[in-house]
Write a structure and sequence with these properties.
binds NADP nicotinamide-adenine-dinucleotide phosphate, single chain, seven-stranded parallel β-sheet
């Protein structure tokens, strides 16, 4: 048993194949920038996308110079269906194909559901659920034809329980978690690996964008973003179904198995409260 586990470990590639192309969504900030640097360190060529062009162009220049890779910056509002199709058309026009999709772009909306404007919630659902699913659909046929590919779906530990204050966001991330885990199984044996990364609170612009002041719990357990992104890429190389970074986050997720659902939602709501 132990021997077979070790042999399996030895078969696991330690890095992606230099020269492959990765599409990173949400590459202008937070985890997206870390994914870009981590993949550049492995000599992966990059397509960076998000709405803000400037931070991606600055990173592109730095990464091309430092690692001798090719980087394309293609800004897009991924909450729009046509923008996603245009993006993939532009990529095809560059005569490259996507070997690695990092489906990372996303944001949360904090506050009572009743008090939140539908337009904001709708934009979040379009990005966190629809864009992630659509981009997966757009790259998968090519990956199937080549019998090779990697997709990392970025969810959240919020996906594991109902979270008052983040009702729609945690539900959206539950979709990402279940869809990604199911895809991992569906694609077993095809050469395509799909992994879900479910981070806990991490030092990015996430809280600022969601409109939440960090709570004491979040201040105490906030992780740096680079190790979280690194763990996601390692899990993807291994073809794991999903990964939760950090000991505390793992304890939280595991403990949910033992707690009634009503209590899970109460605790999640309490942890999100500022006072
Ligand atoms: N940090 C955390 O505590 C945490 C915890 C769990 C899960 N996550 C997840 O991690 C992922 C990355 O977030 P982050 O923490 O790195 O936050 P972040 O620093 O706010 O980055 C979010 C990224 O998404 C992009 N984005 C937002 N709206 C977009 C749109 N309409 N079209 C294209 N790109 C868009 C942003 O770029 P532009 O504004 O330039 O478009 C930015 O690059 C998200 O899916 C988030 O839900 C974060």
């Amino acid at each position: 048993m132990t021997v077979s586990i070790i042999l399996k470990e030895l078969n696991v590639p330690r890095s992606f194949t230099p020269g492959q192309w990765a599409l990173i969504t949400g590459a202008s900030s937070g985890f997206g920038r870390d994914f870009a640097t981590l993949l550049a360190e492995q000599r992966i060529n990059l397509v960076l996308t998000a709405r803000r062009r400037e931070p991606m162009e600055a990173d592109a220049e730095r990464l091309m110079e430092q690692y001798g890779i090719q980087v394309e910056v293609l800004p897009a509002d991924l909450s729009r269906s046509e923008a996603r199709e245009d993006l993939l058309r532009s990529i095809a026009g560059l005569d490259i194909h996507i070997d690695i999709l990092i489906n990372n772009a996303g944001f949360g909306v904090f506050g009572a559901y009743t008090d939140t404007e539908w337009s904001r919630l709708n934009q979040m659902l379009q990005l966190d659920i629809v864009a992630l699913s659509h981009l997966s659909s757009l790259v998968l046929p090519g990956m199937r034809a080549r019998s090779e590919g990697y997709i990392l779906q970025v969810a959240s530990i919020g996906a594991y329980q109902a979270t008052p204050g983040y009702a729609a966001y945690s539900a959206a991330k539950a979709y990402v978690l279940l869809m990604g885990e199911a895809l991992n199984r569906e694609l077993r044996g095809t050469g395509i690996k799909v992994t879900v990364l479910a981070p806990g609170v991490s030092a990015t612009q996430f809280l600022e964008v969601s409109g939440q002041k960090p709570t004491l719990y979040q201040k105490l357990f906030m992780m740096k973003s680079r190790p979280v992104a690194r763990l996601g890429l390692q899990a993807l190389l291994r073809g794991k179904m999903s990964v939760v970074p950090g000991i505390f986050n793992n304890l939280m997720v595991q403990s949910l198995r033992l707690i009634p659902r009503v209590l899970q939602a109460n605790v999640a709501g309490l942890l999100m409260r500022n006072r």
